[in-house]
Design brief:
360 residues; 2 domains; 53% helix; Integrase_dom_put
């Protein structure tokens, strides 16, 4: 590259950076969406995911200045992680899938899929309870359709992954390296790449929501024996936590991992072995094949509490009425992570009241 071309490219890169004043505004605005747990690395990743480019040192300096109490909380919670040897040779070598049940008592379960080489989270889902079809369709099938076939799928021994393992074996001939087993089931402690993510999700999504809900339980304001309460609680928690989960995924994929790089950049080339979407069966097709071939049944529909609506029209009316009062669910998450619990609490009780009105 010529000196002139290098200088032009250098100037272009510099122009993409924001000024200190602009960066302070962006960080201050982002804190209202992320809460106290986003340090300089994760905040840099979050800013990058929304188009704001800045160095970690600049972001860290502003984080320390604009909200000192949050900075002290992060310092108190800092800890060293003991690295464990791990190897994945390339993008598409190992796909790790796991679920998080920290919020299962309130009707929310998270599922993530992460590439072992790049550490990029390639698929996500939040659902009321464990479900083979949802796990397969929204996580495994989405990951394969968007990126190609992984050589090996790695999960724990949970039954919610059976359908994904079944299809992975069915499509094993389309892999880049057919000498390896198409999947491996291990204990959770050996599913290293995905287990590394869950503390980030818990601190930034689950624990803030759980704090509010446990408080309501302690005050005996939630009747978990009531079916409508359980149904509404799960419905709202899934929607709100999905907002936070999406932000964690975007930030993680755009942040720099020391000694490795940025997940989005490491995974840019995709899996070596592409696969046509038509070859990957839908959830319903895969479930039918599974039941016919193996003679085992799968739970097709599941929820946290029985659906209380007697008709689809009643459900639509209730959703429209709730949406009129709360048109933007993201606001509820923004307030919870910043220790403002009342908006989420009021939204939950409003949803319960609206649902009762259309189920009487």
């Amino acid at each position: 590259m010529s000196v002139r071309r290098f200088w032009i490219n250098h100037q272009l890169r510099r122009k993409k950076h924001v000024t200190d004043a602009q960066l302070e505004i962006a960080v201050t605005s982002s804190i209202t969406k992320t809460g106290p747990s986003y340090g300089r690395k994760f905040m840099t990743g979050f800013l990058s995911s929304v188009g704001v480019r800045a160095g970690e040192c600049r972001v860290g300096k502003i984080l320390r200045e604009v909200h000192q109490p949050y900075n002290e909380l992060r310092c108190q919670g800092a800890r060293n992680l003991n690295p464990i040897p791990y190897y994945a040779g390339h993008m598409g070598h190992k796909l790790h899938i796991d679920q998080n049940e920290k919020m299962v008592m309130f009707g929310a379960t998270h599922i993530l899929a992460i590439d072992g080489f790049s550490s990029k989270i390639v698929a996500q889902a939040t659902m009321p309870v464990k479900n083979n079809l949802v796990t397969y369709d929204q996580v495994y099938r989405t990951a394969v359709a968007n990126n190609g076939m992984w050589v090996q799928l790695r999960v724990d021994h949970g039954r919610e992954f059976y359908l994904s393992l079944y299809v992975q074996k069915k499509l094993s001939q389309h892999r880049h390296n057919t000498s390896r087993p198409p999947y491996v089931q291990t204990t959770s402690s050996k599913n290293l790449r995905i287990e590394r993510i869950w503390p980030e999700v818990n601190n930034r999504v689950n624990y803030p929501l759980k704090r509010v809900l446990v408080h309501l339980q302690d005050q005996e304001m939630l009747n978990m024996e009531d079916n409508i309460t359980k149904f509404c609680l799960s419905h709202l928690v899934c929607q709100v936590s999905q907002v936070g989960l999406g932000r964690v995924v975007q930030s993680w994929n755009a942040h720099r991992i020391p000694g490795r790089g940025v997940p989005n950049q490491l995974a840019a080339i995709g899996c070596p072995s592409g696969v046509s979407v038509e070859l990957v069966p839908s959830a319903e097709e895969a479930a039918s094949m599974y039941e016919q071939e193996l003679g085992s049944s799968l739970t097709w529909v599941s929820s946290f509490g029985l659906d209380p609506f007697s008709s689809e029209q009643d459900r639509c009316n209730a959703e429209q009425l709730f949406g009129h009062t709360y048109p933007d669910i993201t606001v509820l998450f923004d307030t919870v992570v910043n220790y403002e619990d009342r908006p989420f609490q009021e939204a939950l009780f409003h949803l319960i009241n609206v649902t009762e009105r259309f189920t009487e």
